[in-house]
Write a structure and sequence with these properties.
Length: 332
């Protein structure tokens, strides 16, 4: 018998902007003592769109924007992924009805949440069987090509939430500062960064290297996997693994940043989807971010260490893995 569980992930607006540090993260579950990534097995992903309009966005404009955001993910080179608009519906999003629905919903109590994605998945295989997305109608939205002052760009936020729908968690490749009323995003190197840019901007309509590496990790073709490589290793402090560290790979030849996390007390990490060739590795703590945006309560996140680099360039082999890389950090 199929056993089903549910999960919620949201994108927050911190009134002004957001705050950062990390890399792509895959959503997953544990079965029989092993980790399993959440992903769709049956393609195309069929989704319905609600027929509700809001100020600044008609139902038709909403559907077209959602379809374009899906197409952006589907069009990533080297990815076997497809989606299909199944029609309009009056059913609200976030209903557990075995149908994936995307639409607006009034959530004035969630005054920092722009959008939220829910999942229903098989807890044994990790197969996604339903995913709903709601966009908070309590905010002002825009589909204007150049954006609109004081309105959030629907396509940017949809691209982020659909990344969750595909099985991606939050990335921390961003820079923020703390201000009155919340964190302000100074810059982000991933659409999957958990805090949105300010209203009026359209900067998150384009996938970055970190987003692309993440979606290739989940849905990459055999050809894509043969053309890229990965790095695996550990982050340690005084010889003991560090959980919840953010590890970033920097490609000096093209400036691309792709990251990963250590997900257990062993301090192990894997960063896949990397271009072959030399990479610089850096480990850093999540000490200026809300760790629950990235991990559940089972991960004992350690933020008491100083950032550190690998002692050498790591050469990523084409179609292979650079293994046993250790980054040693020290307490603050």
């Amino acid at each position: 018998m199929r056993r089903i569980a549910s999960l919620l992930v949201c994108l927050v607006c911190v009134v002004v902007f957001g705050g950062g540090v990390e890399a792509y993260l895959k959503l997953g579950t544990r079965a029989n003592g092993r980790s399993i990534s959440l992903q769709w097995k049956q393609l195309p992903i069929r989704y319905f769109v609600t027929n509700r309009s809001v100020s600044g966005v008609t139902a038709t404009q909403f559907q077209q924007t959602i379809a374009h955001a899906f197409s952006t993910w589907d069009s990533v080179e080297g990815v076997a992924l497809s989606s299909q608009f199944a029609g309009f519906t009056s059913a609200p999003p976030l209903d557990d009805d075995s149908v994936s629905v995307i639409g607006f919903a009034n959530r004035p109590n969630l005054d920092r949440v722009l959008g939220q994605t829910s999942f229903t998945f098989d807890v044994v295989t990790g197969e996604l069987v339903e995913s709903d997305i709601f966009f908070n109608a309590s905010f002002q939205w825009s589909v204007a090509q150049a954006g609109e002052t004081d309105r959030f760009d629907l396509e940017s936020i949809a691209l982020h939430e659909i990344g969750h729908l595909h099985g991606l968690g939050h990335s921390g490749l961003g820079e923020t500062e703390l201000r009155a009323g919340g964190r302000r995003v100074l810059g982000a190197e991933a659409v999957m960064f958990p805090i949105a840019f300010s209203a009026g901007t359209t900067l998150d309509r384009t996938l970055r290297a970190d987003d692309i590496a993440g979606i290739r990790d989940l849905y990459g073709t055999d050809t894509s996997r043969r053309a890229t490589g990965s790095i695996s290793g550990r982050v340690t402090k005084n010889g003991v693994g560090v959980a919840g560290a953010h590890v970033v790979a920097f490609n000096p030849s093209n400036g691309k940043l792709v990251g990963g996390f250590t997900l257990d007390d062993d301090g192990s990490f894997v960063i896949a989807g990397l271009d072959p060739g030399p990479q610089v590795l850096r480990a850093e703590p999540l000490d200026d971010a809300e760790t629950d945006s990235f991990f559940d309560a089972t991960v004992n996140v350690d933020v008491n260490f100083k950032p550190a680099f690998s002692t050498r360039l790591i050469v990523v082999p084409i179609g292979g893995t650079a293994r046993n890389v250790e980054i040693k950090v020290v307490p603050k």
